[in-house]
Amino acid sequence: MGILDGKVAIVTGGAGGVGSAVTTLFVEEGARVAVFDVKDEGPADAALYVRVDIADEKAVARAVAQVTMALDLPDVLVNAAAIAGTGAPTHEATADDFDHVFAINVKGTFLCTKYVIAGLLNAGRPGSIVNVSSTYGVVGNADIPLYHGSKAAVRLLSKCDAVTYADRGIRSNAIILGSTRTDMTVAAMQASPEGAAYVQNLINAHPIKRQAEPVEIARVIAFLASDQASFVTGADIAVDGGYTAQ
Predict the structure, then answer these.
(1) CA 198 to the chain's CA centroid
(2) Is 147 assigned a catalytic role?
């Protein structure tokens, strides 16, 4: 038996690097997984793929209802969908830049959480929310400031939900993600004037001196999603190779 046996999970951004690793591990651990993403196709091991813009409230409400009809009430939600957005500093970034990053990273997390928690409350069932934040939601830096701000917001939403719903058996935790070997990192490297040195500089900033593999992140998320973490809520779990320990 896996640690997620009998669970129905939604993974947003489940067609991406971290999200697809979470999906695969969750399936191996016994969960039925619904993936939310905007790509044309989702991972083959998902029980259900829903192409949905998570910044669209009506679309999210329909998508969560679709999961409930097809699989059962979702009792695990992993909010992994995110974009890096512009690297422009505050005085050069536009309001549209801000809206774009916060719509996916913050509003999308909020909306998916809202509709999953509403279902759990109506059914009187416990559940687990795991939000993927970032070291960039803990420390400041001169690059991608809007991303930093959005990931800090995700951390605090996690804590507020943890306090609000703890007595209803709904847990909420955040993963503080370090640099991970995904397509997002490659895209950031290609957009950076540093080129290949961008990734090496990221690696050098982590005491462990390498990037994480997506499955290393997925293992911690699976633990938080499972009943093994039944007394863990409101936590920031740093999976960052020592980055924020410095």
Answers:
(1) 23
(2) yes
The residue from 115, 147, 165, 243 that is catalytic is: 147
Residue length of the chain: 246
Among the residues of the chain, which ranges form H helices?
17-28, 57-70, 95-102, 108-123, 145-165, 183-191, 197-204, 214-225
Instruction: List domains and CATH numbers for the chain.
Output: 8-245 (3.40.50.720)
CA angle centred on 191, ends 39 and 80, rounded to 5°: 40
Report field, pTM of the whole predicted structure over 0.90:
yes
- For 177-189, how does the pLDDT look when each residue is reduced to its tens digit (9 = 90+)? 998 887 777 666 6
The residue type found at 130 is V
Letter string b/e over residues 141-167, b meaning 16 or more CB atoms within 10 A of that residue's CB: eeebbbbbbbbbbbbebbbebbeebee
Residue stretches of the chain with pLDDT short of 50 = none
